[in-house]
Known about the structure:
By secondary structure, this protein is α+β, with helices and mostly antiparallel strands. It contains six helices and 21 strands.
Amino acid sequence: xxDVAPLPGQDRYxxxxxxxxxxxxxxxxxxxxxxxxxxxxxxVVFRGIPGGIDTQLAxxxxxxxxxxxxxxxxxxxxxxxxxxxxxxxxREDGNIYEIEGEQRGGYLPWHFDGAxxxxxxxxxxxxxxVLPGRGGDTGFIDQIAAYALLPDRLKARIEGLSVIYSYQPxxxxxxxxxxxxxxxxxxxxxxxxxxxxxxxxxxxxxxVYQQAETGQKILHVSPWFADGIEGMENPEGDxxxxxxxxxxxxxxxxxxxxxxxxxxxxxxxWRMLHCATGVPxxxxxxxxxxxxxxxxxxxxxxxxxx
Length: 306
Ligand SMILES: [Fe+2]
């Protein structure tokens, strides 16, 4: 059907698929196998898969209906297909941050998509159109593996807690998990995000929940967008959340995907964190992503005080 191998340097989760013929994507057995692998492994790298945008859309449909990304709705941004969102560093108008004395365009801290809204999509497929000469890796962390490595003492302390999130386009103001030193330039897209109707109220998500298919516990925290622990927005709660996040953001849980033409990467947004390492500001990086529709059903909005 296709070949499956572990990810280079990461055996806790993830898989790499080669020798997949897009002509077989209509076969129910292939579809089932690809779906099961995604649920089992969290992250699937398709290497050397032909067909570009058409294959990307056909693959996405195996995992759920492709949806218009919530932050794209109502904007005038156009791509080749309405279900494709652009992820790109634009030399004229992209985000630039300074990290450890180095400028990085298109850098994104560790996060899952949609933390700042109540619904969380099931994942995405990312495909490169223009790769930079240097940099531009996408990082992943699996939070099933992260939960398994958490000390019992911390597991007991976080049981039943929830995290409050809000949209924060400026990473220098992120409270958790952001190593940036300085904001050099914020893109128009990020600045406009502040005014989007979907981000005017904070969102709340459980810190731990179970994967529906397997019952495995998922440590569910997005460092970027996190404001604090519900009912504990104080130094004690912040210290606890920072300790949990330190346990998640550790090298042995990370996988950094180094992109090649012909790659596509699929992740399960209900259990994986991702980040973008960024590129030197003189580089260009253009990616296309599909978003897989769905909601895990455990998010809610913060009640506004009367
Ligand atoms: Fe993202």
